[in-house]
Amino acid sequence: MKTTRTLTSRSSGASPWDYRGLITNFARRDLKARFRGTVLGWLWSLVIPLATVLIYTAVFSVIFRSIPPDYGNGEQGNYAVWLLVGLITWSAFAVGVTQAIPSLLASGRLLQKIYIPSYVPVIGNALASTVQTIIEYIILFVILLVVGNFGITWLLMPLILALLLVFTTALGYTLGVLNVYARDVQQITTVVVQLLFFLSPVIYPLDRIPEEWHGVPVKAVMEFNPMAQFITMARDVLYGLTLPRWDSLAIVLVWTVALLVIARFTYLRKGQDIGENV
To answer: Is residue 4 part of a domain?
Structure first.
């Protein structure tokens, strides 16, 4: 039997800004639940990425002897720091998408009882993930300050992070709605994200990729990967202390706008009355 819902504040002209209080409440709920019941609590948001950095650093700088680029200040580079920039940026995307997808199903009872735009819990979840990302970036900033690698280009990082947040939220919302109607989407996305990790320059620089492989323009294809460009831009402004390339910015802008259009279309076609299906 379907639950009868009370329709409140249902307006086609309403925007996410009109629901900012509700979105904030969802974000607070997700933040409180993220590490509930654990001994270390929010320290896990630092332990997990640092442990990952140590593992990859041992493998690629000790065993495979990867040589990182020099710092933007001209000093000899450090692979662990170079890797950390890429891992934090990648994690912001991977965690944001994979946790956004089940957020609609997790809010199913509430969506069945009252009318809430389906994007509200997704945006709330994205904001909660962003808080964790900001904490990780703060640790990175401290490390870069200690080694003396800082500059005015850091001021561009909030713009890059904002674009990444919009990109990730739009993708997460679209996949989250599809997951309501086909529960395989979450599992498929998990596999695709794992594959995309190795197709993104997280553990290797993009310039190591050959131009062609058996006639396939491998480098051109990988450069069109939006996460490759987000990671490259983050490394440019934080590690290399240079301005991001205009083509990198253009690619992520095209991807972000395209995903926003798709998310809007998904909301109008499948997301306005989703409570009956969760």
So the answer is: no
Nearest to 108, CA basis, from 177, 207, 200, 33:
177
**Distance between CA atoms of 100 and 171, rounded to whole angstroms?**
9
pLDDT for the residue 214: 78
Close Cβ partners of 85 (under 8 Å, ≥ 6 residues apart):
140, 231, 234, 235, 238, 239
- Locus of tokens 């095209």: 254
Q: Going by C-beta distance under 8 Å and a sequence separation of 6 or more, which residues neighbour residue 267?
A: 117, 118, 119, 173, 177
Residue 2 domain-assigned (yes or no): no
Task: Measure the CA angle with vertex 144, ends 154 and 161; round to 5°.
Answer: 40
209 Rama class: left (phi>0) / alpha (psi -120 to 50) / beta: beta
DSSP class of residue 63 equals I
pLDDT mean over 245-273: 93
DSSP assigned state of 35: T
pLDDT at 42: 63
6: which strand partners? Answer: 114
Residue 7 lies in a domain: no
User: At residue 66, does pLDDT exceed 70?
Assistant: yes
pLDDT in the model for residue 13? 56
Number of structural domains the chain divides into: 1
The answer for residues whose C-beta is within 8 angstroms of residue 252's C-beta and 6 or more apart is 163, 164, 167, 226, 229, 230, 233
For residue 153, tell me if it sits in a domain.
Answer: yes
- Domain membership of residue 92 as a residue range: 16-276
Cα 192 vs. chain centroid, distance in angstroms?
A: 14
pTM above 0.70, yes or no: yes
Query: For the chain, what is the radius of gyration of the CA atoms?
Result: 20
